[in-house]
Amino acid sequence: MKLHPILAALKKHKAGVTLITLQIALTLAIVCNAVFIIGQRIDRINRPSGIDESNLFMITQSWVGAPSGDDEGSVEKLDSMQRTDVATLRNLPDVQSAIAINTLPLVNSTWSGGIGLKPNQQNSTAQAAFYFGTDQMIPALGLKLVAGRNFTPADVNHMGFRGHNRPPIVIVTKALADKLFPKGNALGKTIYVDRDTPSTIIGIIARMQVPSPNSWANDWFWNSVLIPTRLDAGFARYAVRAKPGRLQAVMQEAPKALFASNPMRVIETGTDFDETSVHSFADIRAHAYRADRGMAILMGVICLILLCVTAAGIVGLTSFWVGQRRKQIGIRRALGATRSDILRYFQSENLLIAGAGVVLGAILAVGLNLWMMRQFQMDRMPVLYVLTGMLLLLALGQGAVFAPARRASKVSPVEATRSV
Amino acid sequence: MFAYYLDLALRSLKRNKALTGLMILTIGFGVAASMTTWSVFRAVSGDPIPWKSAQLFVPQIDAWGPVVQKNNPDPDKGPPDALTYGDAVGLMRDHRAKLQSAMYMISPSVIPAVPGEHPINTMGHAVFSEFFPMVDVPFKYGSGWSAADDDHRAQVAVISSKVNRKVFGGGDSVGKTINIDGRDYRVVGVMDDWNPQPRFYDVVNTGGFLQQDEGVLLPFNTAIAAGMSNDGNTNCYESPKETGFVGLQHSSCIWNEYMVQLDSAADAQRFKDYLEGFAREHHPGWAPNVRLHGLMAWLDHEHVVPPDTKISLYVALGLLLVCLVNTAGLLLAKFLRRASEIGVRRALGASRREIYTQFLVEAGMVGLAGGVLGLLLTWVGIAGVGWVLPRDIAALARVDVSLFLTTLAVAIVATMLAGLYPTVRAASVQPAWQLKSN
Fold first, then answer.
1. Do B212 and A234 touch (CB under 8 A)?
2. What span, in angstroms and rounded, lies between the C-alpha atoms of A45 and B224?
3. Is B229 touching A (CB cutoff 8 A)?
4. Which is it for strands A95-100 and A278-280: parallel, antiparallel or unpaired?
5. What DSSP string describes A193-244?
6. What gap in Å lies between CA B204 and CA B199, rounded to an integer?
7. Residue A43 belongs to what H/E stretch?
């Protein structure tokens, strides 16, 4: 197939060709970046929390008229109320395990701080989130200990929630251990979570997300520290695992049992996520990633519309050109061109236009990504996205042009003899 | 004449139904995607208090100093976005603005007067008496408390209509007693429905958008005396030296928000100068680092409009642009195909201007039809964002008259713009050449 006649024909439609080239270029630029955003959001949503999420739910409740002071008497009273609640929950027939813990992964409530390797270190070595609970945290949440040991009941103490966080021993995630001690010898080492008080790493767990699913914690997403301390406050969170198949039933039962043991408390039940206090972990996960999921869906819908519009545009414009050139096609056919010659002519023409479009589009796509990196702290888009996008659009063009091109190939040589 | 062009346009559009349909669909989808994302953007970037936002300011004071600022990723090295208790109380004591209030977020439980009802959770703020006139809190019954109540730590409360309904069953509850976190308070005011979005006086803790409304407002000093803890963020660069709530009050942790009303630029400048002096006096260890943002600048500084909302809007506008380029291409092909018709009309005496009108009317009709389809799709889109976006943001996106008109206007104007070049080309057809060639 010679290029010259195609170029000569395209020169007669400069404006139309420019418009369709521009359209393909813009489509490529937008689709590449949108698909890149979708990919990033899916990656985020698929990050494992590190805990066993099946049949798990969380109750957030506060006591009314509970001691609000920070004195020892108040703290002891709150501690006993919390232990009573945990016992109440554990005694329910369908409950497999129940613990009090200050927060859970994907629950947007974080106590975080800097970890140092020396006392009073000015700039911390790593940022990390703290989980306060007992020796039951690891078994109840299904966390995997990969080195060292779990806390024992004797290791566990308690303090008021505005107390000083000074644990003598801690368990850390593998990610944090490797960040603090890159040689992989974190077990038994001393770290500083509160300026000048040393804490010894007695165990390492495989993985546990920090509570915040938001982007501010992106850089230290796996840096969690388990602290063997019950936090005593006017409110408490309980992570409860139901026996298989009994989740719904226990979620109904648990608040009732807590009210029965002490009615002076707030446990809201209702439909609004932010105002209710009993959530299955599946709901917590859906809520945490709702914005990411929404963004991915939105970008997906826009990409779909874009590709459809561009494909339809190619079909429409090519159909017009075919209609316009019926006479020329007839002459070519009369002069001996086969049907497949005509088909190939239109396909080559489209390949030429789409080829120019995707080259321009690739430049626009990279430019758009650079702009978004500056404007929205977006990551750099891998070249693979652009290359895949280019191929996709070339294929789309060939697919779209096929129907009109086939119609063109069916033009009879007799057309050459007709005047209009 | 216009009616004649409408008739011509209709005939032309009917001649090639598939192509007309394609153009209408393209415009419809492009406009709907843009208007849907625009409605969300409009909702989150609006001015929550347009009659007054120019007079409201948020002061910032660097209570942490250069040691901490060294790690501040912000190139501006601005102070933290909240105040220490010491600074907040110090500013209140000096009382230099026309109206001002320190505040912190609380979430107390309220015990209903009706026996047998479970206690309810509320969200609110501890504020000073000037908060009410400063942010124009609307009242259904009663009013805010007095400055004397601030000073005497009076046991008074302002509650929302919703709390009023839940606790007292509605009605004028001024003077009644309400049990908040186990203590008795006298109700002095019941707010009318009031749920400003963004929650401009405390975007630091609310992130801007909250469905839950302000349930309870208590005097700042009373809440502090009651040991009512802060439910907003507490940000510390070092642990408090003493434990407990008192320890937090004495610490360098930041957990208090602050807003002032300053009526003129001169007042704002004077207040800024005063802030510098205040910082020099209270944080003598380093050069004063203070800011005084106007409300709208503050909302921008705190990134109240989520980046996702902006990205979605830009991507949707990109889609609209592609749709317009597409429509321009199709109109061009369509118009040029009618070169011989144009030639005949021109030869029969139609001026170039009349050809312009004829084809722009045709483009406008496509735009109108696209706009009507776009309206329907926008309506579907706005219902759809409720399913996919975070609820507190999605709930704000609405179809109203202005969105309705904007959608139609955008569709028609955009399509006519797309039709401009094809029309120019059509009008420049040489009649003689067209007549000769056939």
1. no
2. 41
3. yes
4. unpaired
5. EETTEEEEEEEEES----S--SGGGGGGTT-EEEE-EEEE-SEEEEEEEEPT
6. 9
7. helix A14-45
The residue length of chain A stands at 420
Predicted pLDDT at B209? 80
Summary mean pLDDT of chain B: 88
DSSP secondary structure code for residue A379 in this structure: P
Q: Answer whether residue B245 shows pLDDT above 90.
A: no
Task: Report pLDDT for A419.
Answer: 59
Distance from CA of A358 to the nearest CA of B (A): 14
CA distance A257 to A89: 7
**Are residues A30 and B322, on separate chains, in Cβ contact within 8 Å?**
yes
- Nearest CA-CA distance, residue A76 and chain B, Å: 14
**For residue B306, what pLDDT band results from cuts at 50, 70 and 90?**
confident
Q: Binning pLDDT at 50, 70 and 90, where does residue A272 land? A: low
B73: its two tokens: 């990723």
> What are the CA-CA distances from residue A199 to residues A263, A399, B65, B150, B239 (Å)?
39, 65, 28, 45, 16
Q: Which residues are within 8 A (CB) of B199 and not within 5 positions of it... i.e. 6 or more apart?
A: B48, B206, B208, B209, B210
Check CB contact under 8 Å for B121 and A266.
yes
> Which residues make beta-bridge pairs with B180?
B110, B183
Q: Is the CB of residue A213 less than 8 Å away from at least one CB of chain B? A: no
The HSE-up count of residue B113 (CA atoms within 13 Å, CB side) is 14
Domain boundaries, chain B: 2-47+306-437, 63-288
| Type of residue at A69 | G
Question: SS3 helix, strand, coil % of chain B, rounded to 5?
Answer: 55, 15, 30
pTM of the predicted protein model: 0.85
- Structure confidence by residue, pLDDT tens digits, A288-331: 898 899 999 999 999 999 999 999 999 888 888 888 888 888 88
How many Å apart are CA A16 and CA A317, to the nearest integer? 8
Please answer yes or no on whether A266 and B118 come within 8 Å at the CB atom.
yes
CB-based contact, B194 to chain A, within 8 Å: no
Q: Helix axis angle, A4-11 relative to A339-376, nearest 10°?
A: 70
Of the residues A32, A35, A197, A320, the best mutation for testing chain B's interface (the one with the most B CB atoms within 10 Å of its CB) is: A320
List, as ranges, residues 120-179 from B with C-beta within 8 Å of A: 120-121
User: Is A291 touching B (CB cutoff 8 A)?
Assistant: yes
Peptide bond into A153 cis (omega under 30): no
In angstroms and rounded to an integer, the radius of gyration of the C-alpha atoms of chain B is 30
> Using the beta-carbon criterion (under 8 Å), do B332 and A302 form an inter-chain contact?
no
Is residue A420 predicted with pLDDT exceeding 60?
no
Alpha-carbon torsion angle A83, A85, A86, A90, nearest 10 = 140
Chain B positions in Cβ-Cβ contact with residue A71 (cut-off 8 Å): 244
A353 touches B: beta carbon within 8 Å: no
Q: What is the pLDDT of residues B215-231, one digit of tens each?
A: 999 999 999 998 888 88
CA distance B60 to B228: 24
Q: Cα separation of A134 and A173, whole Å? A: 16
Q: Which H or E element spans position A393?
A: helix A383-409
Q: Token pair of B168, please? A: 């007292």
Three-class secondary structure assignment of B117-173: CCCEECCEEEECCCHHHHHCCCEEEECCCCHHHHHCCCCEEEECHHHHHHHHCCCCC
Determine if residue B209 is left, alpha or beta; phi over 0 gives left, psi from -120 to 50 gives alpha, anything else beta: beta
Residue B69 reports pLDDT greater than 90: no
Helices (H), B302-400: 307-337, 339-347, 352-388, 391-394
Contacts 24+ apart (CB under 8 A), A180-186: A180/A115, A180/A117, A180/A125, A180/A126
